[in-house]
Amino acid sequence: MLKYEKLSLHESCPLRRSDMPHQHKVLVSKFYVPKPTATDGPLRGAAHEQRFLTLTNDIEEQLLTVLKNPPPNAIAWKDFEAYATVLPEFQEEASGLITRLLGYLPIHAVLLPQEVLIRKEIDRFLNKKELPQQEFEDNIYRLIMQTRNLDMEKGGWIEKWIYDKDDMDRYMYNYAPYISMARERLFLFFEYYPDLIHSLDAELLLRSYMCRYGFGTREQLSSAFDYKVLTIIRYREIMHKEGKAAADASFLLGK
After folding, report:
1. Which of 56, 99, 124, 214 is deepest in the core (most CB within 10 A)?
2. DSSP letter for each residue of 147-205
3. Dihedral of the CA atoms 104, 107, 109, 114 (nearest 10)?
4. What is the C-alpha R_g of the chain?
5. How confident is the model over 35-73, as pLDDT tens digits?
């Protein structure tokens, strides 16, 4: 089995809160507890106890809401368990195949269950001898296409299609020194400038990568960051023009 370069699970770069897709902004503020203001005055005795109980009840209600309706990018405990226990000897090969064909590793909520499925296919091919070479390769490609599609959905990259003034302000002012460099880097790979309806959030993501890691516009397409950004844009382009089914069936950008 070929060994491919293994990337860190922590592939994604921290963004400013305003750069996050909407669902992530909701999660960031989910457990906000208001601080007492100067007009509240000192709280003592029964008043202090009542305020504490009120805040505690509010937090409990918020926790119950999240437990009953987990966000799309939440990781189930069963996925943690399976990732740690199911065919761990094929972890490197499975993550290597994802990195090779997709170009990057997706968010954990997608990576953990999908990698387990890929490990099982590797086991069927190498150990159980149940699959011919071509069927094995077709199954792996199909699973990694499914991984890409889930990453676009659970990552929140295909939710928003109408952008308002606040979105354009984010685009104009967040990581502003990297605006032109990010656009030129996209042109280097696409040979055209993508429409903002397809690329706005992906460009902000690319700018954050460029700010943090310092790569410019002339390097070859080689990083997981590039593949992540290009995958988002290309998927949105196809989905916008041809529908989600066509985007789901589109080819992968990896090698």
Report:
1. 99
2. HHHHHHHHTTTTS-----HHHHHHHHHTTGGGHHHHHHHHHHHHSSPPPHHHHHHHHHH
3. 0
4. 22
5. 444 444 554 555 555 555 555 566 666 656 655 666 777
Number of Cβ within 10 Å of residue 108's Cβ equals 19
Answer with the one of 93, 124, 154 that is the final residue of a domain: 154
pLDDT digits (tens, 9 = 90+) for 128-183: 999 999 999 999 999 999 999 999 999 999 999 999 999 999 999 999 999 999 99
Residue 214: per-residue pLDDT: 77
Indicate if 185 and 137 belong to the same structural domain: no
- 46 belongs to a structural domain: no
Which pTM value belongs to this model?
A: 0.73
H, E, C per residue of 101-156 = HHCCCCCHHHHHHHHHHHHHHHHHHHCCCCCCHHHHHHHHHHHHHHHHHHHHHHCC
Shared domain for 179 and 115, answered yes or no, is: no
Rounded Cα–Cα distance for residues 172 and 203 (Å): 11
Question: Which of 83, 86, 97 lies closest to 3 in space, CA to CA?
Answer: 97
Residue 119: closest CA among 76, 79, 72, 73: 79
Q: Domain containing 96: what range?
A: 75-154
Under 8 Å between Cβ of 124 and 32: no
In a domain, 23, yes or no: no
